[in-house]
Description:
The chain is mostly beta strands. The chain has helices at 2-31, 71-76, and strands at residues 38-45, 91-99, 105-111, 115-126, 129-134, 139-141, 146-149, 154-161, 170-179, 187-195, 205-214, 233-241, 247-254, 257-259, 261-265, 268-271, 275-277, 282-290, 301-308, 313-319. The strands form three sheets. Strands 1, 2, 3, 4, 5, 6, 7, 8, 9 and 10 form a ten-stranded mixed beta sheet that branches.
Amino acid sequence: xxxxxxxxxxxxxxxxxxxxxxxxxxxxxxxxxxxxxxxxxxxxxxxxxxxxxxxxxxxxxxxxxxxxxxxxxxxxxxxxxxxxxxxxxxxxxxxxxxxxxxxxxxxxxxxxxxxxxxxxxxxxxxxxxxxxxxxxxxxxxxxxxxxxxxxxxxxxxxxxxxxxxxxxxxxxxxxxxxxxxxxxxxxxxxxxxxxxxxxxxxxxxxxxxxxxxxxxxxxxxxxxxxxxxxxxxxxxxxxxxxxxxxxxxxxxxxxxxxxxxxxxxxxxxxxxxxxxxxxxxxxxxxxxxxxxxxxxxxxxxxxxxxxxxxxxxxxxxxxxxxxxxxxxx
Length: 329
């Protein structure tokens, strides 16, 4: 009887150890911060050539009496332009950053293949005089909060450019975030910015994630790991309908030409004639660009557009993961 009791006590001890390990693992998972918890939208950058430059850096964000950007404007320029000489004119990038996680995150660094130096700046206006300075310590975003990088406020200053930026181009930005109140390592999120001299229009469909990748490469997005993919260079994009009405789209464009568009449904890709994204819904798409080599993407990103059912174009862009570090390696 004593032997049986001893065995039972040892079993109980083992079970308690397993429960303790499970609790610790569960606590670790609860404190984890996934890349999807940092949602970055509305990313754009100023051009350094081919636009009305007066007032670009400190005044009117569009450099004059500009109208909001449409898809036609963004697709008008050739996106895969030849590598141009570096520009002494700086550029700036803007976006909205949302923290959907449980802990604060801090944007601490930025890298891009088109600039030797990228700094986080803040524009301040005192007595009608604007001044700009680098932000020490980065920009902190509390859990459930968001911050806007916009003209006249926070922005990313791009200096010592390696190439000129023209309207219709796209560039990659690697954003590094520190995760506060955790032991996690800093996280880098790659986003793509459309280069435009006009304020981006607000559209019901909002791009929350995009990746430029080769079908036979190693950087296939997690959502497509088990999906049969078309050949060539592809774009994976996730969009949310944040409007108050359904948002139907019909096709996609690249370099002013129609390109194949598929919707990801139940783990498979389906080419569509039209797809309706309901209010509050999310859609995942794949755009097939064809035979494009990574070296033909000097900015680390490419622009594309969705053709909405009313024939308006939604200008978007996608970047290759880690493209911002290429020039600095």
